[in-house]
Q: What sequence folds into this?
């Protein structure tokens, strides 16, 4: 089984590396967004799948990353690394300060609290236009330049964002496989038992919240460099909902599911645009149908399909 | 003059607060009867208001007939969603987050369908009554606002009576609290859930019809209504209508005071920060009677 999944992983990685150069520019562009959204969705997925927390505030950290990059590179004119670093540090600190009290809440209260954070932050980003330039936004964010290689085409950016995504996935897989991951699942499935065995639930949840915020911030910084323009409209509640849809659609407990969820939310609306004004309706219906037909997410759906095929093959 | 300013802003706070409570009623009813966090509640209101607008303004039906058909359309939508989709999810023992995602899907679909069929611009319904204006404590009061306040209060007591005193109301609560136990004593659990969605749909449509003379209905209003309604319901402990009114009034009046004292730009900042603080420091809701910990 383990060798089989390694083989599958290698095949997928080979496809992800080899095919994009032959795809049209517009598709590569969507793949870049899939990678960026996967990174932000991965953070939400870790919280949901490992801690059972529905986070509707990821847009806050996505915005922080994007604004940190915009402010550092455009207003202060320093290197791109400073943007990423400021975003990550700021997001981590804010996640710590806000997460510590808020993560004591549970269930729907917690989901609502994260949503409220998203709304508050969006209103502040809008009002503090001396810092964020409000709805006019920041333009002219420079292209990334890695050791002299300028990342100025969608294809180059795709490889960069894909590599960052792979690193984030690897880090998450490590986390889930570690002792911390075991504690997380114990806390999610049997909170009382975990507590009695000395698991510090609140600190653990806060740590995952910080990690999730850092992923969100990195995704935001990448977004800023890719589009070279950010304004407050990119960081609304719709974005926070999209970041939650991604892991839930893919299957919250599965890491590859996040990537599949992100592909779905970027590619499906694009495929539906040829239906004109109806495409939003169709996207909503597709979303509803997917949830009803595959309640454990797209990954769960694929797994039961493969079980079904094997069972039929044997019979 | 100052008295007028204060009473005017308090009055608008109370009116807005009851609007949030009206949306919160449906959210509380569906949470009570089905344990589902219903993100599509605002869309029920949008559908109800749009149906009434089409019948009243474009076809020219009398107000009462249009309002009744509007409520029926909410009921039909609720029943449809339960029978076609929710039943399947329940049969598959779907996890909690699939319901959340499903209702998000419904709300995206309905809002996009309204945009497609009804266009971008907002529509206002005519107010209930003759549109008279009263002066109370130097503040201008529209007749419609009085109707809205009166109907909300009546609905609150009616729902309270329904859940506490009528057999049907108690059956609906029992079916949600302990489905197996309820089935054992002969309650049709599936039918109770369908009725819960019908009730949620009707409450949503009533809310939509009452709100639309004040806030124009368009494809965009569903989600904001849901968010404010959710805040009202959760502050009140998520299952009781009295709580939704208390929660709605707290949010509405807080907003009005912020608009009066600071600027309207910081309305959402203060309201939603206050919401987070109340949830942290009063985890069982304002009335201390949450349905269960964490909702």
A:
């Amino acid at each position: 089984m383990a060798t089989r999944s390694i083989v599958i992983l290698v095949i997928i990685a080979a496809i992800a590396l080899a095919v994009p150069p032959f795809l049209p520019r517009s598709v590569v562009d969507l793949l870049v967004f899939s990678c960026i959204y996967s990174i932000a969705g991965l953070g939400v997925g870790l919280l949901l799948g490992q801690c059972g927390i529905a986070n509707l505030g990821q847009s806050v950290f996505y915005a922080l990353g994007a604004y940190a990059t915009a402010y550092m590179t455009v207003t202060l004119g320093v290197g791109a690394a400073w943007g990423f670093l400021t975003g990550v540090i700021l997001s981590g600190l804010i996640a710590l300060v806000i997460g510590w009290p808020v993560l004591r809440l549970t269930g729907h209260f917690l989901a609502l609290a994260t949503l409220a954070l998203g709304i508050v932050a969006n209103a502040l980003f809008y009002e503090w236009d001396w810092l964020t330039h409000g709805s006019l936004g920041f333009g002219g964010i420079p292209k990334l330049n890695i050791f002299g290689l300028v990342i100025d085409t969608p294809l180059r950016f795709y490889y960069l964002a894909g590599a960052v995504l792979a690193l984030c996935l690897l880090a998450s897989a490590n986390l889930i496989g570690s002792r911390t991951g075991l504690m997380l699942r114990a806390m999610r499935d049997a909170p009382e038992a975990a507590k009695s065995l000395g698991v510090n639930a609140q600190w653990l949840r806060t740590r995952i919240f910080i990690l999730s915020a850092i992923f969100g911030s990195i995704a935001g910084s990448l977004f800023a460099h890719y589009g070279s323009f950010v304004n407050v409209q990119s960081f609304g509640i719709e974005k926070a909902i999209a970041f939650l849809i991604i892991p839930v659609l893919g299957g919250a407990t599965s890491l590859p599911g996040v990537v599949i969820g992100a592909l779905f939310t970027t590619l499906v609306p694009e495929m539906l645009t040829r239906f004109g004004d109806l495409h939003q309706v169709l996207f909503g219906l597709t979303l509803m149908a997917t949830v009803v037909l595959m309640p454990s997410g797209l990954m769960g759906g694929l797994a039961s399909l493969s079980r079904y095929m094997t069972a039929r093959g044997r019979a | 003059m100052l008295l007028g300013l204060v009473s005017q802003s308090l009055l608008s706070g109370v009116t807005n607060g009851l609007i949030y409570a009206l949306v919160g009623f449906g959210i509380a009813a569906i949470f009570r009867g089905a344990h589902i966090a219903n993100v599509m509640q605002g869309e029920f209101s949008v559908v109800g208001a749009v149906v009434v607008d089409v019948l009243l303004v474009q076809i020219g039906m009398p107000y009462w007939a249009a309002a009744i058909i509007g409520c029926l359309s909410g009921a039909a939508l609720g029943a449809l969603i339960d029978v076609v989709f929710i039943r399947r999810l329940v049969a598959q023992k779907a996890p909690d987050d699939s319901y959340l995602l499903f209702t998000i899907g419904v709300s995206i679909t309905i809002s996009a369908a309204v945009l497609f069929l009804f266009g971008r611009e907002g529509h206002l319904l005519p107010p209930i009554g003759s549109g008279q204006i009263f002066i109370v404590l130097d503040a201008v009061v529209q007749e419609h606002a009085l109707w809205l306040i009166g109907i909300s209060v009546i609905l609150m007591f009616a729902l309270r009576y329904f859940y506490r005193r009528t057999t049907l109301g108690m059956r609906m609560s029992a079916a949600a609290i302990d489905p197996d136990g309820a089935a054992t004593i002969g309650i049709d659990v599936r039918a109770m859930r369908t009725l819960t969605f019908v009730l949620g749909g009707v409450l949503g449509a009533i809310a939509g019809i009452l709100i639309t003379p004040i806030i124009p209905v368009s494809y965009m209003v569903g989600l904001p209504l849901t968010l404010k309604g959710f805040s009202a319901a959760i502050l009140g402990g998520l299952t009781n209508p009295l709580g939704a009114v208390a929660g709605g009034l707290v949010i509405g009046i807080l907003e009005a005071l912020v608009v009066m004292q600071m600027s309207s730009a910081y309305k959402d900042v203060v309201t939603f920060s206050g919401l987070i603080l109340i949830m942290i420091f009063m985890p069982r809701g304002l009335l201390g009677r949450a349905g269960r910990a964490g909702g």
About this structure: Strands of chain B lie at 133-136, 139-142.
